[in-house]
Amino acid sequence: MAYAMGALMWKTSDQPANVDEKCAGVLGAAMFYAKVGDAAIVYTGDYNMTPDRHLGAAQIDRLQLDLVITESTYATTFRDSKYAREREFLEAVHKCVASGGKVLIPTFALGRAQELCMLLDDYWERMNLKAPIYFAAGLTIQANLYYKVLINWTSQKVKSTSATRNAFDFKNVHSFDRSTINAPGPCVLFATPGMISGGFSLEVFKQWAPCGQNLITLPGYCVAGTVGHRLMSAKTPAKINVDENTQIDVRCQIHQLSFSPHTDAKGIMDLVKFLSPKHVILVHGEKPKMALLKKGIELDFGIPCYYPANNETVCIPSSLYVKADASREFLKSSLSPNFKFLNTSSRADIDLILNERTESFVQVCDDRVAEGVLTMQKNQHPKIVHQNELLVMVGGENHEVQFAYCCPVRVSDECKDVAPSPGENTPPVFDKCPWLHLLYTKLSNDFQDVTYQNDGDRLQIESFTVSVCLKEKCPHRTHVSPDSTSETVNFCCVWSMVDEKLAWRVISIMKNLELRTR
């Protein structure tokens, strides 16, 4: 899961997730996967997407996540080749000890100390160098013991050679005797803490920094305000304030190179792309750099990203899936076909070659939609039922809301003599009154993807019905022009709510029509 040995996946369900930010250690570091109900998150801790000498790259399963909380220490850093950095580091150390200088490598006890010890031990063997390499006693010695015991948690390369030689049995690295801190001769010393914020690394720094022959190499990240951070921006010779009462005249060489276990900006982007969560929160970084990374994530992946300050609350919406049963009647209704007939034209290649004849055909599609009602009753599973079943369940009656509108349609002069007389009670049919037939002809050209039904008295499209209105004062007629009896024919239109959009599309076309017999 994570870059370190003993990587774990911790999962909890149906209970609040308690994610510990201290999972950012190296030995046994882990990414935490927490799931409560349908909401799932991953908290990364510190991780590295690039394999190194003793540990592999971070690995995690592809998950359906609402949120990823990721560290962003190097939010804007894009590292160069690891081999180029190693070569530069080895050349700087070799040059210093060859000239008789001492090399101080401030580092933390876990992870980077073992990585750099392996690198220098191998280089010393190949170059047959005699200058001693030391690491300060304490946590580093204990950490090495765990690395030796837990060899199966390391990289594949280290495991493959463990049968012949344990990679953490260093031939050229020894424990350091503090009494020899000012002993003459070149040497390399690993000392903690890595940021020279106190402890033994600060003590050695005070002794070795004034000598221009010595070298201090900073392999990792240093927090602002620490001595290590001041050295990163210093140009020797310089005076560095260690505390309020102590100032060190720094004349030694300063070499900064990133061997941090934290992933860089590319690694963070790769992880976000792989997991593709619905939201991302950036933590453990510098605010200006996190702001730039946030823009990159939102621009490249379209994922909302946040970088809240300490004690700031961020609300992340999550998905909720409800498992429901389905009634037999609902399932039967969803299986009923809903055919749509579409008149289309196709110009066949052979017709195009012979006589350019256009061939018409009817395209049939099944526009099937299942509509149901989700019911939730006490002590019962949620259930989707047909709307007719719901009325029975609640003891109600079926009420349908319908809309009506009396629409005037213009007619041409040649059609005026066939207009029906006002007040005529006989329903019009196509052979007695051509209006409905003429309207059908006009509408069928504009609505080729719907099914029409007509019985002579009315024309129906879905729930929308239209018929000739012979009433002098129709309650659904909103506008009556003075000459409407001679220039227009009124059609009563009735429809239900589900076809409201369709109805107004038809009515808008009818208002702009002019009926002609030819």
TrEMBL record:
- Identify the SMART domains for this entry: Beta-Casp
Q: Where are the transmembrane segments?
A: none
Statement: the UniProt record of this protein carries the keyword Hydrolase: yes
Q: Which Pfam families match?
A: Beta-Casp, RMMBL
Q: Which domain of life is it from?
A: Eukaryota
GO BP annotation list: snRNA processing
Entry keyword set: Hydrolase
Q: For the Beta-Casp domain, which residue ranges apply?
A: 113-231
Q: Name one GO cellular component term.
A: nucleus
| Gene Ontology molecular function, alphabetical | hydrolase activity; RNA endonuclease activity
Q: Does the keyword Transcription apply?
A: no
Q: Which PANTHER family match?
A: CLEAVAGE AND POLYADENYLATION SPECIFICITY FACTOR FAMILY MEMBER (PTHR11203), INTEGRATOR COMPLEX SUBUNIT 11 (PTHR11203:SF37)
Q: What is this protein called?
A: Cleavage and polyadenylation specificity factor subunit 3-ii
Give the species this sequence originates from.
Answer: Nicotiana attenuata
